[in-house]
Amino acid sequence: MTPGLLARIERGYDELSPQERRAADFLRDHLADLAFYNATEVARLSGVSKATISRLYRRLGFGSAEELRDHVRGLRAAGTPIAPDAPLSFTAHLDRELANLRSALASPQLEPAAALIAAATRVLVIGLRNSYPVALHLRQQLAQARDRVELAPLPGQSLGEELVSLAPDDVVVLVGFRRRPEAFARLVAAVLSGPARSVLLTDSTGRRFASEVDHLLECPVDSVSAFDSYAAAASLVSVLSAAVLAARPREGRDRIAGIGAAYDRLGELEGA
């Protein structure tokens, strides 16, 4: 894997001249803005010559300012947290969240995916790394609407024994947002090679799996902050689960009533 910008700076920092160190310190402290600054702007803002910036870029392994900008854009597009220099604009954050939400809920795959999940004999929800909390939430919501909804992998468990027991009437819901583990593509291939149908919840980086799964629900996680936001993903989970419930109204009502009675018997929830 090619080292990131910060790793390159740290690795060669001691060999830089005083002026190059000054510029390197600016790069390190303004990483989020480097996707937009050209070499002239970096030179002016860091208080060094443009020649120093060009020399520093070459030392860091970049052929040009554009190449460095592309590198920084790629980091953010891949979900790498990059701290902004200016305070977070809550208005800009809200605008981005609303755009993400509109995009996620406009998917034409939402209704057919819900119908597939509703009709399945068994539903297996799989999420790895940062996708695991979304998968956990989805399993919890779906379990209110229907029975035989399972989550994998459970702590300390592997996926092999879960996949081998799948049947043609089962559905695997894969949750795979960006910064997926290397093994994710093999997981998709393993599900595809089995008898079960499949649904994938992902962002734009997962489009390459569209031809391999039955339904792909694309949900942006882009944010104006340093971190990806899963607010739209949580809303998509809620809408998807509600659509599954609507497809099984009688079974869903009976199940919800039974769950409520069990809560009361066990005293699991606080009173109103």
UniProtKB/TrEMBL annotation:
GO molecular function, one term: DNA binding
GO BP terms in the entry: carbohydrate derivative metabolic process
Organism domain of life: Bacteria
HTH rpiR-type domain ranges (all copies): 3-79
Name the UniProt record assigns to this protein: MurR/RpiR family transcriptional regulator
